[in-house]
Amino acid sequence: MAKKSKKQQQSGGTPATVALAAAGVPFTVHAYDHDPSHPSYGEEAAEAMGVSPDRVFKTLVADVDGALTVAVVPVAGQLDLKALAAAVGGKRAAMADPALAERTTGYVRGGISPLGQRKRLPTVLDESATLHGTICVSAGRRGLEVELAPDDLTELTSATLAPIGRA
């Protein structure tokens, strides 16, 4: 998990929520009790918040031709690695080593947020996000989600919109 500054520790914020607040972007934080035995972090979040899995997006880190890339896709589906590679002009993509993803982003698996990462990585957001007024993504730790407009997420992460999710 990313180190917190004194200000973050006092406010209880994560790097993701601090980045959103600093940008002046409207957002809502949703906290829930994380169950470590649940088979899917994303599905658990959707169930706990009572939100359609189509509106809850998971943040995955992939290796595209040797470069780490963030993919943000609905928890209801899977990441299409070929589509991700194509979206960033690459040839091959594979899931990144989890330990490398954690070190690079500053977050733990199941709590990786596309926002406030330690090292800013190229980001691709599944275009289905634009079908919703708001979507939910990890706020930087297990059991914490942030709800915001897909346009705001796209702008803050300089994301490319592309069809990278599949059912």
Automatic annotation (TrEMBL):
<dbReference type="InterPro" id="IPR007214">
    <property type="entry name" value="YbaK/aa-tRNA-synth-assoc-dom"/>
</dbReference>
<keyword id="KW-0648">Protein biosynthesis</keyword>
<dbReference type="InterPro" id="IPR036754">
    <property type="entry name" value="YbaK/aa-tRNA-synt-asso_dom_sf"/>
</dbReference>
<dbReference type="InterPro" id="IPR004369">
    <property type="entry name" value="Prolyl-tRNA_editing_YbaK/EbsC"/>
</dbReference>
<comment type="similarity">
    <text>Belongs to the prolyl-tRNA editing family. YbaK/EbsC subfamily.</text>
</comment>
<feature type="domain" description="YbaK/aminoacyl-tRNA synthetase-associated">
    <location>
        <begin position="43"/>
        <end position="155"/>
    </location>
</feature>
<protein>
    <recommendedName>
        <fullName>Cys-tRNA(Pro)/Cys-tRNA(Cys) deacylase</fullName>
        <ecNumber>4.2.-.-</ecNumber>
    </recommendedName>
</protein>
<dbReference type="Pfam" id="PF04073">
    <property type="entry name" value="tRNA_edit"/>
</dbReference>
<keyword id="KW-0456">Lyase</keyword>
